[in-house]
Structure to design on (958 residues):
């Protein structure tokens, strides 16, 4: 039978099912296949809050959104074109995010009376059987039945057979989007190489899904999404937390210092620890501490001894580390603190994203405790940001906070990865000789930073601590003039970093004009897309994304006043907004979303249009 | 921590004195401890620059400022964690933690027990004065029940910690007790602590003459010391009393105080101390009842228990080396590339 091919620029697929349905794996496989094919893409997994929520319930739905295209892609997308629903709950939870006219691929076995009841469908009526889904293109497949049929001779038990269901769906989608099975076949071979029966079953079901599309008459249309025109070079796919981890290893390599990570598991930061603990061949030492405080304190100890020391956490853990961060600031030692933000306050929304720890990062410590803060804006950018956090910490002798969030930490995108030769050296000098008659541990250089003298260095024995210290000697001092001097000195030292960071640049748009949209962190993709959409409709809008939040780039203030209006979209109630208004007296306007989910480009575009009218 | 002892000291005790004025109250037990530490450190055969003293907060935690070595006066309760990070990455250093009963038993209790189970090769000196001195006299987690202090005008209702039993419970590998008023014994215990490979935990009874004066005098003062303090040494019978006429006999698991010259008892019936016997060390650690109680046991001083167990930092390093031996040294370019790449032309 003749099948038609329709060419599309971009597609958004949401894979949704019960947490046991393997949707994260299905999504990741499709992503890798699309990436290696040359599509640009962006992904966003959406985990249930409970690890094992009751099967079939709305609370147990696990999702994975993939946006891929032949054009440049900056976000996982707003509403999806295709919704894969492995059961009734998955459909119910995600239907509102499906475009009108979108495709639903439903596993009919997941719509039996029990599943319908668990998903709260009234009277046990299946939406697949009434006309409530009339405006969508519904493809109903009894995936369970097909999978069992494919494996009838496999000798495997029903439980094992049913576990291969997701491969059927994946195979079908590969057919739908004209994709090769090769990457997934290789993946399965690596994964199940030692279990030939399971490998065989998965391969069979994967092919069965593909062939089902090919041979069944109902499906006439297949879709083509051409490779994207991206900058020439070599690419790989990368997730945010993974990029952060690799950034730290790279910094340790470029600084020629061993990497030590003292940390405590917390969602959504734990994957950084998991990734780093794999890289022992780089001499990385990971220390899973007894609590968050010990996480940072062991890092302080390692830094005192001359390691590149890092601690990782999320909001609640950062709160616990507050006092020790203050110690790091008083000691003036290099230390990188990574906050992968999540919804707060308190335990808040551990699996959901938010940008509500900016003020905590800037001000959340006792006393006047200035600390540089920089933020990553996309999964791949976590690499550069982690590297830069290490550079600032080591070259300026200070703790540095890096902000990421659940959205980019778990999201993935293609990354034009660097080679080691592309990376800057990080300049570390240990003190080896006295800098006065006695060694002066707080004598400052042109960066206002103090010498790093490691224990074991003969003749430089000295004591440091959390008490206020005398200028230069570092001896305890309760002198009031000295205290004021030192408070201002610590602030000046952090502000001095502005001389060693790049100027703020525009991401897009005119240098002067009506409206500047200023973002920080993970809102980057949505703002970029929104600005592009608005400009294509003739609105005069520019975009700047701030990486350096403390200190700000020196030209930022000037840039803000080149526009009639400034809009600051944030996933909080207006934290950067407050800081910008405070520092520059700029009458900026906020656009705030605190729903645990990222902005859609459409939401930001609407606001741009409103302000430009 | 273990060290090779050499005969000629590399530096003198005097060279361990800093230019900082010592700020403890006159008569404080800390002075004696400082002096004994400054005496023992030069004997250890380790260059001065390899010593690091890390403290938390409290009177005792001023200690590093008075030692001309590397040092850090950190934050309340965290010296143990900071020292763990330092030692895990710098095996060449001799790391000493100076802490108090509030610092290590209260706010830093968590890090304390985890340090012991990990067994990093560091030395913990717990200055136990059973009171909060720096904050001017509140009861501490080691203060006895009923203690009247500024924060317990009607008497403390808290049951106290027994630091030695706590350390036993946390699987410490070297557990000992000494006192500020017995320099000879204290120096001996410091030497033994230094010689042990693993976390050495030394509890030192320290008199706070301002807020808790005389709380240990039953054990430290001539008139009662022989009766109330039991000095234990491996291979020697547990004897005490004015003329060493009293001893501890084990009746099953129950310790009984007997007079070796009476009722047909003989020295041969007395429990002989063995620092490698965990069960007996556990019993000994429970000799903790108030000296005012009728029929109480004497308080033991000396090494309760010692065990040889691999140190965290050694295993950590071994693991890194094993991975490098198996996979080769990490290649940054390979890491940056990952496993699946594609080219865009
Ligand atoms: S308050 Fe007590 S423990 Fe503190 S220095 Fe004075 S006497 Fe010593």
């Amino acid at each position: 039978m003749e099948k038609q091919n329709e060419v599309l620029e971009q597609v958004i697929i949401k894979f949704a099912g019960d947490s046991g349905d393997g949707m994260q794996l299905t999504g990741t496989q499709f992503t890798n296949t699309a990436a290696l094919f040359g599509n640009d893409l962006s992904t966003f997994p959406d985990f249930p809050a409970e690890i094992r929520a009751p099967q079939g319930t709305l609370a147990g739905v696990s999702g994975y959104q993939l946006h891929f295209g032949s054009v440049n892609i900056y976000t996982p997308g707003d509403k999806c074109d295709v919704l894969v629903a492995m059961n009734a709950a998955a459909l119910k939870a995600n239907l509102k995010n499906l475009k009108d006219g979108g495709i639903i691929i439903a596993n009919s076995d997941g719509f039996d009376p029990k599943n319908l009841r668990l998903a709260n469908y009234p009277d046990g009526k299946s939406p697949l059987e009434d006309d409530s889904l009339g405006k969508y293109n519904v493809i109903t497949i009894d995936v369970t039945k097909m999978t069992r049929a494919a494996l009838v001779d496999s000798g495997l038990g029903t439980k094992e057979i049913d576990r291969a269901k997701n491969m059927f769906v994946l195979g079908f989608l590969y057919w739908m989007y004209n994709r090769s099975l090769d990457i997934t076949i290789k993946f399965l071979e690596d994964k199940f190489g030692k279990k030939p029966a399971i490998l065989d079953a998965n391969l069979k079901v994967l092919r069965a899904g593909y062939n089902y599309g090919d041979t069944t008459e109902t499906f006439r249309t297949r879709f083509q999404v051409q490779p994207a025109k991206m900058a020439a070079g070599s690419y790989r796919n990368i997730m945010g937390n993974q990029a952060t981890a690799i950034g730290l290893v790279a910094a340790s390599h470029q600084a020629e210092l061993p990497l030590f990570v003292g940390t405590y598991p917390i969602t959504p930061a734990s994957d950084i620890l998991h990734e780093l603990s794999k890289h022992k061949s780089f001499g990385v030492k990971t220390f899973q501490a007894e609590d968050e405080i010990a996480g940072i304190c062991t890092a302080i100890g390692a830094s005192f001894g001359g390691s590149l020391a890092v601690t990782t956490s999320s909001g609640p853990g950062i709160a616990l580390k507050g006092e020790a961060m203050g110690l790091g600031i008083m000691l003036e030692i290099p230390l990188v603190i990574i906050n992968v933000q999540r919804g707060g306050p308190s335990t808040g929304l551990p699996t959901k994203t938010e940008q509500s720890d900016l003020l905590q990062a800037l001000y959340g410590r006792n006393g006047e405790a200035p600390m540089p803060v920089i933020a990553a804006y996309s999964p791949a950018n976590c690499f550069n940001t982690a590297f830069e956090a290490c550079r600032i910490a080591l070259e300026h002798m200070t703790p540095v906070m890096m902000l990421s969030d659940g959205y980019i930490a778990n999201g993935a995108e293609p990354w034009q990865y660097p080679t080691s030769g592309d990376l800057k050296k990080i300049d570390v000098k240990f003190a080896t000789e006295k800098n006065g008659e006695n060694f002066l541990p707080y004598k400052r250089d042109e960066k206002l930073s103090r010498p790093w003298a490691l224990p074991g260095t003969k003749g430089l024995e000295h004591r440091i601590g959390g008490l206020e210290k005398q200028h230069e000697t570092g001896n305890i001092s309760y002198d009031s003039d000295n205290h004021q001097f030192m408070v201002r000195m610590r602030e000046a030292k952090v502000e001095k970093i502005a001389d060693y960071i790049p100027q703020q640049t525009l991401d897009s748009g005119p240098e002067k004009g009506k409206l500047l949209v200023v973002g920080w962190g993970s809102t980057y993709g949505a703002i970029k897309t929104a600005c592009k959409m608005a400009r294509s409709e003739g609105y005069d809008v520019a975009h700047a994304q701030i990486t350096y939040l403390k200190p700000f780039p020196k030209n930022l203030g000037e840039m803000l006043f080149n526009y009639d209006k400034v809009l600051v979209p944030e996933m909080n109630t207006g934290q950067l907004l407050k800081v910008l208004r405070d520092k520059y007296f700029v009458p900026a306007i906020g656009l705030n979303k605190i729903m645990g989910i990222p902005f859609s480009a459409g939401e930001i575009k609407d606001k741009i249009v409103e302000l430009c009218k | 921590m273990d060290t090779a002892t050499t005969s000629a000291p590399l530096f003198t005790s005097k060279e361990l004195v800093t230019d900082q004025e010592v700020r403890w109250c006159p008569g404080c037990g800390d002075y004696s401890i400082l002096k004994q530490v400054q005496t023992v450190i030069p004997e250890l055969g380790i260059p001065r620059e390899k010593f690091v003293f890390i403290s938390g907060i409290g009177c005792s935690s001023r200690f590093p400022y008075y030692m001309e070595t590397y040092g850090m006066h950190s934050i309340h309760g965290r010296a143990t964690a900071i020292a763990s990070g330092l030692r895990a990455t710098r095996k060449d250093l001799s790391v000493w933690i100076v802490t108090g009963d509030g610092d290590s038993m209260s706010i830093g209790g968590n890090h304390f027990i985890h340090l012991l189970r990990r067994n990093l090769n560091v030395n913990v000196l717990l200055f136990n004065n059973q009171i909060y001195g720096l904050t001017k006299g509140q009861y501490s987690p080691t203060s006895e029940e009923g203690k009247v202090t500024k924060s317990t005008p009607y008497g403390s209702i808290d049951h106290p910690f027994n630091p030695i039993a706590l350390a036993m419970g946390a699987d410490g590998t070297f557990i000992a007790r000494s006192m500020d008023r017995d320099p000879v014994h204290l120096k001996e215990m410091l030497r033994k602590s230094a010689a042990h490979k693993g976390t050495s935990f030394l509890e030192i009874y320290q008199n706070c003459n301002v807020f808790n004066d005389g709380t240990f005098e039953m054990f430290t003062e001539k008139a009662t010391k022989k009766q109330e303090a039991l000095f234990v040494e491996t291979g020697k019978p547990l004897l005490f009393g004015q003329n060493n006429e009293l001893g501890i006999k084990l009746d099953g698991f129950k310790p009984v105080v007997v007079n070796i010259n009476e009722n047909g008892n003989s020295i041969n019936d007395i429990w002989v101390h063995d620092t490698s016997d965990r069960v007996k060390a556990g019993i000994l650690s429970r000799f903790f009842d108030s000296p005012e109680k009728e029929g109480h046991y004497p308080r033991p001083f000396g090494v309760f228990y010692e065990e040889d167990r691999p140190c965290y930092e050694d295993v950590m390093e071994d693991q890194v080396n094993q991975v490098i031996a198996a996979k080769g040294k990490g290649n940054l370019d390979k890491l940056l590339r990952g496993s699946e790449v594609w080219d865009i032309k």
